[in-house]
Amino acid sequence: MKKSKTQKPLVAVIMGSQSDWPTMKEACDVLDAFKIPYEKQILSAHRTPDEMRAFAISARTNGLKIIIAGAGGAAHLPGMTAAYTTLPVIGVPVVSKTLQGIDSLYSIVQMPKGIPVATVAIGNASNAGLLAVQMLSINDEDLAGRIETFRQRQSQDVKESNKLLKK
Ligand code: RP5
């Protein structure tokens, strides 16, 4: 599957601040590697709450399938976005300056029953990208095959590392 600029985004990568971009870029890198059309933008639950709400409310009708949301500190963006849409939201706790992302993790992972956010490890936006790709592969055999190839290469890399270790 070729990604072209005219393809409608299936995934949205949103983040609370420009300072989250170095982390969230890793999710975009995975989506690029699997040629998934996506959009990205800064949306803050605190600094731009109206824009965040408008985005989340219209996400499904805009053709999006999955939202990856990253934030740090009082990381309310993934949970608030999830409150306004029934699309799956994957939360990325971004490392924070004072509490190293423990605050971000707790803010994102401790959602109340009824409004889930699938939370990845602190700073692991790459896994958020992969999880999104795997969700999309539910209805896409070609994509499922490419994930299988990725997994095989990953296993092969471990085997190669072992060979080097034993030399
Ligand atoms: C959160 O506050 C953002 O997601 C970011 O991780 C954190 C710090 O934001 P900046 O002060 O760097 O803009 O809303």
Q: What is the gyration radius calculated from CA atoms? A: 17 Å
Percent helix:
40-55%
Please identify the top-level CATH class: Alpha Beta
Low confidence ranges = none
The biggest beta sheet, please? 5 strands, parallel
CATH architecture: 3-Layer(aba) Sandwich
Helix segment tally:
6
Helix and strand pattern = EHEHEHEHEHH
Instruction: Trace the largest sheet across and list its strands.
Output: 2-1-3-4-5
Q: Find the CATH topology.
A: Rossmann fold
Number of strands: 5
> Which whole number gives the mean pLDDT?
96
Provide the β-strand percentage band.
5-15%
Ligands? 5-O-phosphono-beta-D-ribofuranose
Number of domains: 1
Which terms would index this structure?
167 residues; Rossmann fold; five-stranded parallel β-sheet; 5 strands; alpha/beta; isomerase; N5-carboxyaminoimidazole ribonucleotide mutase; binds 5-O-phosphono-beta-D-ribofuranose
Note down, in words, how this protein is organized.
Pathway: Purine metabolism; IMP biosynthesis via de novo pathway; 5-amino-1-(5-phospho-D-ribosyl)imidazole-4-carboxylate from 5-amino-1-(5-phospho-D-ribosyl)imidazole (N5-CAIR route): step 2/2. It comes from Bacteriovorax stolpii. This is N5-carboxyaminoimidazole ribonucleotide mutase. This protein is α/β, with parallel strands linked by helices and 167 residues long. The chain has one domain: Rossmann fold (3-Layer(aba) Sandwich). It is built from six helices and five strands. It has a five-stranded parallel sheet, sandwiched between helices. Helix 1 runs parallel beside helix 5 and helix 2 packs across helix 3. 34% of the residues are buried. The mean pLDDT is 96. The structure holds 5-O-phosphono-beta-D-ribofuranose (RP5). 5-O-phosphono-beta-D-ribofuranose (RP5) binds next to strand 3.
